[in-house]
Amino acid sequence: MPESSTTDSIKSAEPAKSSGSTSLLDSPAIPRMGAEAGYQLVSEEDVPPLRASGIVCLILGMLSFWAPIAWQMLVIPALAIVFGVIAMRKWGNVRPAGTSAAVIGLLLASGFGTAGVMIPAMKQQTLGKQAEYFAREFLELCGNGEKELALELQKPVQNRQLGTMDLEKAYSEDEVASQQMEEASGGIIDNVMEAGPDIEWKLAQPVDVFVKYGVEKADTYWIDPSGKIDQKIQILLEWHPDETNNTGQWHVSLFQFHRELIVAPSIL
């Protein structure tokens, strides 16, 4: 082959090489190496965006374990769900980073949040049934004439007589107990005793279970279907748990005929 033709071919190839080099420098693509594809170009559109709301959702979801412990902490799973919904909003071709964290956070928040709602509700229902049973038994023992036991149950737990003591003898010999017996004469206990033990007491309204000053209480209202007692009776109970042996006792903190309040209970 002539030397001149070889030189011309080399010169004609130089512009092409120069043109290709210029296009690589001007391109906004990011180089990457693939095991199978070899040397490839990655555009900025292939880089997934970060959604920080998904990370926040995951953190709040893990903190939601406080919700079953205290109902005030239900705000934590609620916030986690809000951030999770924001993180899972619609995206384009590339799935944003942080959505997987949002899914985990949503699952944690939903689980702990549900437990935080269900556990207090179940506890309230259980306390309500126990309070209804105890209040009914209290009315029946009053109807049976067990006045000393009724007075004992109206005392704070720590001030009651021992369970093995003869209450009738204790109230007759103890000066303070005798005075308490005299003060209760002619009161609501005597009215229930006069009505007799055969009354089928009925709840006038559902039991109201609430917490006040850290003490769990149950407010019950009863009516006499026979009409021997024509007034509604209020029995307010307090639950005092004993953590040493996982038991507890009810305290009759209020036993009276129902009185209509002139002002709202929230003001009192």
TrEMBL record:
Segments for region (Disordered): 1-29
In this chain, composition skew of type Polar residues spans 1-10
Task: Please provide the record's keywords in A-Z order.
Answer: Membrane, Transmembrane, Transmembrane helix
On the tree of life, the source organism's domain of life is: Bacteria
Q: Which residue windows are transmembrane per the record?
A: 69-88, 100-122
**The UniProt record lists the keyword Transmembrane:** yes
Asked if Membrane is a keyword of the record, the answer is: yes
- Protein's name according to its UniProt entry: DUF4190 domain-containing protein
Species per Swiss-Prot/TrEMBL record: Neorhodopirellula pilleata
